[in-house]
Design brief:
Blueprint lengths: L4 E9 L2 E8 L4 E6 L1 H25 L1
Antiparallel strand pairs: 1-2, 2-3
Length: 60
């Protein structure tokens, strides 16, 4: 079962960015990412949200 997202932060780091993803149990996953990887993540989120809005509009 997927854990619920509790907190998400991005901080600049020497080699790109550090992401901290915390779940509702307080466990934190720390990842490093490049600017290009963050851009891909942002685009994927935007695409998904646009699809969700389109589905809502069609349902109404």
């Amino acid at each position: 079962m997927a854990k619920a997202l509790s907190r998400f932060t991005i901080e600049p780091a020497d080699d790109g960015y550090t992401l901290h993803i915390e779940d509702d149990a307080g466990e934190t996953l720390e990842l490093t990412a490049t600017a290009e990887q963050l851009d891909i993540i942002a685009e994927a989120i935007e695409d998904q949200l646009e699809e969700d809005v389109e589905e809502i509009d069609v349902a109404e």
